[in-house]
Amino acid sequence: MRGEELLRRLRDRFGAAIVETHEFRGDTTAVVDRTALVDALRFCRDEPALGFDMLTDLTAADYLKFPGREDGPRFEVVYQLYSLTHNHRLRLKVRVDEDDAVVPTAVPLWPIANWLEREVWDMFGVRFAGHPDPRRLLMYEQFVGHALRKDYPINRRQPLIGPKT
Amino acid sequence: MSAPEPTTREFMLGEGSGTGSGQTLQVGVGPAHPAMHGIIRIVTELDGEFIRKADVEIGYLHRAFEKDCEVGGYNNAIPYTDRLNYVSPLINNFAYASAIEKLLGIEVTDRCKYIRTAMAEISRICDHLTCVGASAMELGAFTVFLYMIKAREFLWELVEDVTGARLTISYGRVGGVKADLPDGFAAKVGGAFKQTRDVLDEVHRLLTGNRIFMDRMVGVGALSREETIAYAITGPLLRAVGVPYDVRRAHPHWAYDHVEFEVPTQKDGDNYARYLVRMAEMEQSMRIAEQALALMPGGPVNVDFDGRPIDPAAYVDQGKQGKTEGLLLVPIRLSPNLQGQNRPAWQQVNAADKRVVLPPKETTYGSIEGLMNHFMLIMEGYGIRPPRGEAYFASEGANGELGFYVVSDGSERPYRVRCRPPCLPPVAALHRMIEGEQIADLIPTFGSVNMIGGELDR
User: Fold this and answer.
1) Confidence at A163, pLDDT banded by 50, 70, 90
2) Is the pTM of this model over 0.90?
3) C-alpha to C-alpha distance for B256 and B113, rounded to whole angstroms
4) Which CATH superfamily is domain A3-129 in?
5) ipTM exceeds 0.85
6) Does A20 lie at the interface with B, CB-CB under 8 angstroms?
7) Mean pLDDT to the nearest integer, B21-42
């Protein structure tokens, strides 16, 4: 299915909850309101004409220092969907503010979301409401802060944990 | 009356030891276990010899790849991508470069596409050889490991010929590749592939019908088709459950739509099916690489003033004999890969976009325009500037879909680079493959997942 057609179906179904859509370099993107996120993901997965059976990737981006978007919602959580049956892709995004950085979890839809959401929590400090196992994924529990946030300096050192000397 | 104290044997063995207490034993495998291929920790809860529960911990090799990408120019991330999947670094190089090219909206030259295709396939064979060889070794088939590493050595020699390095190759560039292929490369590839085919044939005879090997692999570590898809597992593990998804076929990039190949699949989804898929894929990869080299556009770069091909040594000889008439018109050609890029080779492998690709060295040092062009790409505050936006490019890595999601804010540095590591989904699903199986089966299952710490932890 072509990108416009995908976006049209999403808009038909969710109306104003689709905040923004664009197509750039052949990638189809829709920004979804947080309240409709899980429904939109479920719709994408279960609607036979869309048939997005794979959550290829789930990541985030911190727009704190993005020119022109410094004041807007800080985080964007990005879902890359792929359909094995129809061979098409879709990118869904949801925007959240720093003081309310919580996104509903997608683990009941796709088990892979478990680890990917843990990584987003680890790296960006975005929480996933209802996540069954909200631990960090790559860093250790004692690590302070979230390394991929734009205000985390790249040269900050933190003590490595280990046996006390 | 209280139950008798369990004996040490009963305590250690749990199930079947007669206590019926259901007592379990926690065993941590890794992070520094010889069969852990890099560093990973699996905390298992054992009931007798059976794994009841497993918790996989990763992150021991995390080195902030994505953060590091944000502080330099677009080409600065190329050496970091070498270290993602360090067994097939060329695929990472090219996939990253292609993601940036997609963001820029530029097209690389045909010759570059064929070079990328051929080199990526050679890397894929290296990766599969390592995976199959190492998992066979962990089951006691040390001979297979040595044979396969021997074959990989022939292929790594090819990689060394082209890139000058074996592992940390940094050969891809945004808009092209570092340099052209060396002379006589296709013939060398033919020789190396012949050796590799012999090794694969030998390994087939050693393993494919081998009773011990099959007992350890058939029916072990299986994952259902539904679960494999739900875990977004791609690559050989997905094809082992019968889904013929291959990014090279589904979204043809580089020269994959100009070559013929099959996508081998199996049905069972167990370790043996994964082994068979990998063995079949190596043959297909060799087919692709051979076709790519045969179809490679370009042809000889050196021609004398009558239009005949001339090799560098003959050129030097003619000059020494004083036969210099017309020689100035003949492009000089050094080794195209190791001693820098000269103009003819450069034109063939790089996109003709001055905003993206460094000029050939003779232009840089020979003209003010070239020097300025070089300056505009290298100096602080200048460089490749894709338009604002985002793009996701997927390529078929050795372990599955290798994707790069890049966000640009219009400056010379990537705003965000996300690598979608192909081996993260299988490792995330590893506990599903090993729970309920015996602890000894953890080793072949983990081997068949082919975890690469570099790309898993980034």
Assistant:
1) low
2) no
3) 9
4) NADH:ubiquinone oxidoreductase Nqo5 subunit (3.30.460.80)
5) yes
6) no
7) 76
**Cβ <8 Å between B418 and A112:** no
- pLDDT computed for residue B53 by the predictor: 86
What 8-state DSSP symbol labels residue B66?
H
Cβ of A55 and B232 within 8 Å? Answer: yes
Residues in B 211-240 with any Cβ partner in A closer than 8 A: 227, 229-232, 234
> How many CA within 13 A on the CB side of residue B130?
22
A21 at the B interface (CB within 8 A)? no
* Domain range summary for chain A, segments of one domain joined by +: 3-129
Task: Check CB contact of A1 with chain B, cutoff 8 Å.
Answer: no
Report yes or no: B389 at the A interface, CB cutoff 8 Å. Answer: yes
Of the pLDDT bands very low, low, confident and very high (cuts 50, 70, 90), residue A140 is: confident
Q: What percent of chain B has pLDDT over 90?
A: 22
Distance from the A25 Cα atom to the nearest Cα atom in chain B, whole angstroms: 7
Least confident among B32-41, B52-61, B275-284: B32-41
C-beta atoms of B425 and A114 within 8 A? no
C-alpha B127: how far from chain center: 6
According to DSSP, the residues that pair with B51 across neighbouring strands are: B46
CB distance from A111 to chain B under 8 Å?
yes
Q: Do A67 and B416 touch (CB under 8 A)?
A: no
Q: Return mean pLDDT, chain B.
A: 82
Check CB contact under 8 Å for A66 and B428: no
- Per DSSP, B332 falls in state P
Please give the residue of chain B at the shortest CA–CA distance from A110: B230
Question: Would you state the pLDDT for residue B404?
Answer: 93
Region of poorest pLDDT, from A13-17, A78-82, A99-103, A117-121: A13-17
Among left, alpha and beta (phi > 0; psi -120 to 50; other), residue B232 is left
Domains of chain B: 65-299+384-422 (1.10.645.10)
A57 and chain B: CB distance < 8 Å anywhere?
yes
User: What is residue B304's predicted lDDT score, i.e. its pLDDT?
Assistant: 46
- pLDDT for position A103: 92
Residue A58: alpha-carbon gap to chain centroid: 5
> Does residue A48 belong to the interface with chain B, where contact is any CB pair within 8 Å?
no
| B145-170 burial code (b ≥16 CB/10 A, e <16) | bebbbebbebbbebbebbbeeeeebb
Give the Cα separation of B397 and B89 in Å (integer). Answer: 10
Work out the mean pLDDT of chain A and round it to a whole number: 87
For the segment B346-353, the average pLDDT, to the nearest whole number, is 68
- 3-state helix vs strand vs coil in chain B, percent to 5: 50, 10, 40
The residue of chain A with its CA nearest to that of B402 is: A56
Do B420 and A84 make contact, defined as CB atoms within 8 angstroms? no
In the sheet with A18-24, reading across from the earlier edge strand, the strands are A18-24, A27-32, A89-96, A75-82, A54-62
Q: What is the spatial distance between Cα B48 and Cα B309, in angstroms, rounded to a whole number?
A: 72
Which of B64, B391, B401 is facing A147, going by the closest CB pair? B64
Neighbouring-strand partners of residue B390: B407
Q: Which residues of B272-294 are buried (b: 16+ CB within 10 A; e: fewer)?
A: bbbbbbbbbbbbbbbbbbbbbbe
pLDDT higher than 90, residue A51: no
Q: pLDDT confidence of B194, banded at 50, 70, 90?
A: very high
Closest CA to B437 of B426, B428, B445, B425: B445
